[in-house]
Design brief:
This protein is mainly alpha-helical. The protein has one domain: NCX, central ion-binding region (A middle domain of Talin 1), CATH 1.20.1420.30. Helix content is 73%, strand content 1%. The chain has a two-stranded antiparallel sheet with strand order 1-2. The N and C termini lie far apart (64 Å). The relative contact order is 0.21. Keywords: Membrane, Transmembrane, Transmembrane helix.
Length: 363
C-alpha cells in the first residue's frame, strides 16, 4: 500500500480559505455558503495564530507580537481604503469607526481577557510597567490626536480636519508609531519581555528546537495568506451580518463592530494563549501594539487616499465615544502603573468593552 505524505492542516486551511474567498468575493451568499465561509474564516484565524507563534519562536519577542499586529493592520487598512473607494460618501466615517472599534476591543477586550486569564491562574498578573506604560501613552496620544481633536478644530465645519491638519496628523501618527517600534525592538527591548513576580525577565525556555529559517519564512507566507483570507472572508460575510442587523433593527454601526471583532480574533487568541503561559507582557504587546498600528498606519494611509476619495473624511468622535475613550485611558493608566493586576482590573476593562458594545447596539 502506498502512503501519501501527511499534510498539515495549518498549510491546507489557509489555501482553501483563499480559494473560498476567490469564489465568494462580490457574490451573494446562500445559507450553506455563509456557513462554509464561516468555517474557513474560523480555520484561517486558528492557522494565523499558529504561524504567528512559529515566527515568534524563531525571531523572539517582542518581534513576534509586532509582526502579527502589523500584518493584521496592513491588511485591515487595505480593506478600509477599498471599501471607502467603492462605497461613496456613506463610508465617510468608516475609518473613524473601525479605528475606534479596534482601540476599544484591544485596550479593553484583549487586555481585560488576558489579565483575567492570568489572574485566575496565578492570582496576580505581572508585567513590565515601563514598556506597557510607554505603549499606552503612545496609544492615548495617537487616539486623541486623530479621533478627538477633529471634533474641536475650527478651520473646517464638522468633525473633520482641514488638509494641512490631516497632513500633520498623518506625519505625527506615522512618526510616533515608528519611534515606538524602534524603542520596542532596539533601544529598550527588555521593557517588552515577560517578567516574573520578582520583576526579573523570564527566560523563555522551549523544549522544542526553534524552527529553521526556511520554516519561519514559510510560516510568514502562510500567515499573510491566512490573514488575507480572514479579513476578506469577514468582508464577504458582512452582507449577511448587515441583513441580520437590519432584521433585528439595530444601528448600522454594529456591522463595523462585528467585522472588527472578527478581524481581531487572531490577536485575541494569541494574547489569551500567552496569558495562560504566564507571558502577560506578550499579551499586552499584542493588544496595545494592535491599537497603535491601527491608528498609526490607518491615518497616514487615509490621508493619502483622501486625494481621490469623494466626500468628507469624518474623524472626530461623538461625546459618548470620547467619554469611553477617556475612561479607557484613565483605567488603563491605573492598571499599568503598578506592573501587577488582579481579577478586578481585568473585570473593569471587560466592563468598559461591554459598555461600548451595548451602546453600539443601543446608542
Amino acid at each position: 500500500m502506498i502512503r501519501l505524505p501527511a499534510v498539515d492542516w495549518t498549510v491546507v486551511v489557509p489555501l482553501f480559505a483563499v480559494v473560498t474567498l476567490a469564489f465568494t468575493w462580490g457574490r451573494g451568499l446562500s445559507v450553506l455558503g455563509a456557513v462554509v465561509t464561516g468555517v474557513f474564516l474560523a480555520g484561517g484565524v486558528l492557522a494565523a495564530v499558529h504561524h504567528a507563534e512559529v515566527i515568534a519562536h524563531r525571531v523572539g519577542e517582542p518581534f513576534g507580537s509586532l509582526i502579527l499586529a502589523v500584518a493584521v493592520t496592513v491588511i485591515e487598512v487595505a480593506l478600509i481604503v477599498s471599501l471607502m473607494a467603492s462605497g461613496g460618501p456613506e463610508t465617510s466615517s468608516l475609518a473613524r469607526d473601525t479605528v475606534f472599534a479596534a482601540v476599544m476591543i484591544t485596550c479593553n477586550g484583549i487586555v481585560g481577557l488576558s489579565l483575567l486569564v492570568a489572574a485566575v491562574r496565578r492570582k496576580v498578573a505581572v508585567f513590565n510597567a515601563e514598556g506597557t506604560g510607554g505603549a499606552l501613552a503612545t496609544v492615548a496620544t495617537l487616539a486623541a490626536l486623530s479621533l478627538v481633536l477633529p471634533r474641536f478644530t475650527t478651520s473646517t465645519p464638522g468633525p473633520v480636519f482641514s488638509a494641512p491638519q490631516l497632513g500633520f496628523a498623518a506625519v505625527a501618527s506615522l512618526g510616533l508609531y515608528g519611534l515606538f517600534v524602534v524603542t520596542q525592538t532596539i533601544r529598550h527591548r527588555d521593557y517588552f519581555l515577560p517578567v516574573a513576580a520578582d520583576g526579573s525577565l523570564i527566560a523563555d525556555h522551549q523544549h522544542a528546537a526553534p524552527p529553521t529559517t526556511r520554516q519561519a519564512v514559510a510560516s510568514l507566507g502562510l500567515l499573510m495568506v491566512a490573514l488575507v483570507a480572514v479579513v476578506g472572508l469577514a468582508k464577504v460575510e458582512s452582507p449577511v451580518i448587515e441583513s441580520a442587523v437590519t432584521a433585528a433593527r439595530l444601528p448600522q454601526a454594529v456591522v463595523g463592530v462585528v467585522i472588527a471583532l472578527l478581524v481581531l480574533l487572531p490577536e485575541t487568541i494569541a494574547a489569551v494563549r500567552a496569558a495562560r503561559r504566564d507571558r502577560v507582557q506578550i499579551s499586552l504587546n499584542l493588544a496595545l501594539g494592535s491599537a497603535m498600528a491601527s491608528i498609526g498606519l490607518t491615518i497616514p494611509t487615509i490621508a493619502v487616499a483622501s486625494f481621490w476619495l469623494d466626500g468628507p473624511l469624518l474623524l472626530g468622535l461623538d461625546a459618548t465615544h470620547m467619554v469611553l475613550l477617556g475612561l479607557t485611558v484613565a483605567v488603563g493608566t491605573l492598571t499599568v502603573v503598578p506592573g501587577r493586576a488582579t481579577l478586578l482590573q481585568g473585570g473593569v476593562h471587560l466592563a468598559l468593552l461591554a459598555c461600548y458594545l451595548f451602546l453600539a447596539v443601543s446608542p
